[in-house]
Recover the amino acids of this structure.
């Protein structure tokens, strides 16, 4: 699939609120059934990153079932209750910011005549890039485009000459496969890609050549990513329903994955790493997001004959109602999240930002035109953002501000925020 890149200044004109709706626990919606089997360690790690200092919770009376109020937090900071010299810790900050979900709006950003497939903030949040469908192709060539900076307007488009990176490794068979997923390493020196020939490829940008090719799965590799900033571990997900973990340090010796994680009943659409080399989430065509701990992985997949239907195809069929409550008998996932839908396209899901939320939430696009936000620990559906008229393929939460941008097959890009003043937010670069 080909894309055009769009980058311009976000408009501050407010949408007509009559055409938008926000639903969640905050306005009375009943949350999903709470998770009862979420491991203590995951809950504890999340709490450590998003809970206030214990001394701040002791300021005055409060209800135990409610979070410490922002006013109480500020009073405690001024009184130096936490003993940090009147400063918030990172967990204090996350506790305050994570309460203000980016659910107000939406505000108009852009509209194109073609489908929006991908959209992401840059790591520092200064740029937002969206890719739209402009032509069809199945090719192992990845194009690098200079999008400029916040001071210089980019004119990148499909008519420009791009730098092509060939992932075919000079195969005699020609361009016999396409790339479904691609991710940069944290240091920007490598790319990892998943392909339609069931393989994972790693491209060395400094050497300008393919450095590793792994026959990884028995079907299309829809999604890949590096596990952490070290670049040693790679996660992959495939239409064969399996998530796999690859350790590059020993692959040349073993020629096998470090482990396999079983639990999805249908193909894997997308994977996002928590960044700690331990936990990741996956969006599945079985209409679920699953949370994984790689310490639970096994050396081989646990098969479940008869669970998958060879007649069902997510590209044009609805998910069978009788399959929605089915569970893999050897499910190795830590938790499962339901409510959104994964149909027609490889819809993406993510952990919320570490800086502002302590990764307390996970969020995803959906075939039913919405964005869903779930509480990582309880599984509650805390917000549903409704505006688009077609599937929301991708969405991105700003790394530092309570802002989320959604992009849809209706060609529209919209922005959701939690501005304290109720006014339209200031412009950003897009």
């Amino acid at each position: 699939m080909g894309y055009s890149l769009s980058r311009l200044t976000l408009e501050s004109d407010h949408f007509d609120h009559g055409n938008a709706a926000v639903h969640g626990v905050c306005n009375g919606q009943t949350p999903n059934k709470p998770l009862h089997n979420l491991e203590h360690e995951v809950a504890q790690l999340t709490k450590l990153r998003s809970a206030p200092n214990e001394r701040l919770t002791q300021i005055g009376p409060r209800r135990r079932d409610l979070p410490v109020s922002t006013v109480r937090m500020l009073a405690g900071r001024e009184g130096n209750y936490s003993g940090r010299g009147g400063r918030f810790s990172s967990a204090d900050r996350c506790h305050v910011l994570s309460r203000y979900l980016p659910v107000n709006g939406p505000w108009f950003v852009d509209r194109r005549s073609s489908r929006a497939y991908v959209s992401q903030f840059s790591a520092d949040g200064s740029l937002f890039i969206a890719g739209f469908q402009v032509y069809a192709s199945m090719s192992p060539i990845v194009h690098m485009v200079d999008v400029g900076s916040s001071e210089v307007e980019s004119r990148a488009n499909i008519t420009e000459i791009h730098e092509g990176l060939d992932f075919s490794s000079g195969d005699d068979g020609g361009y016999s496969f396409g790339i479904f997923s691609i991710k940069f390493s944290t240091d920007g020196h490598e790319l990892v890609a998943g392909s339609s020939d069931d393989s994972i490829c790693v491209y060395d940008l400094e050497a300008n050549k393919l450095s590793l090719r792994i026959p990884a799965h028995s079907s299309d590799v829809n999604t890949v990513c590096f596990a952490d900033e070290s670049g040693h571990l790679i996660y992959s997900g495939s239409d064969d329903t399996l998530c796999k973990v690859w350790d590059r340090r020993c692959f040349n010796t073993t020629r096998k994955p470090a482990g396999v994680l079983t639990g999805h009943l249908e193909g894997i659409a997308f994977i996002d790493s928590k960044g700690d080399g331990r936990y990741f989430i996956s969006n599945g065509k079985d209409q679920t997001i699953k949370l994984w701990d790689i310490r639970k992985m096994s050396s081989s997949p646990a098969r479940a004959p008869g669970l998958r239907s060879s007649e069902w195809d997510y590209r044009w069929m609805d998910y069978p109602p009788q399959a929605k409550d089915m569970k893999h008998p050897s499910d190795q996932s830590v938790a499962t999240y339901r409510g959104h839908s994964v149909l027609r396209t490889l819809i993406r899901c993510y952990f919320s930002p570490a800086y502002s939320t302590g990764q307390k939430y996970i969020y995803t696009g959906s075939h039913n035109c919405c964005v869903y936000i779930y509480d990582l620990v309880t599984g509650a559906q805390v917000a549903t953002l409704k505006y688009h008229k077609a599937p929301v393929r991708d969405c991105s939460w700003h790394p530092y501000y309570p802002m989320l941008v959604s992009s849809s097959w209706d060609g529209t890009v919209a922005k959701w925020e939690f501005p304290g003043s109720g006014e339209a937010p200031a412009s950003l670069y897009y």
Notes: Residues 5-31, 421-430 have pLDDT under 50 and may be disordered.
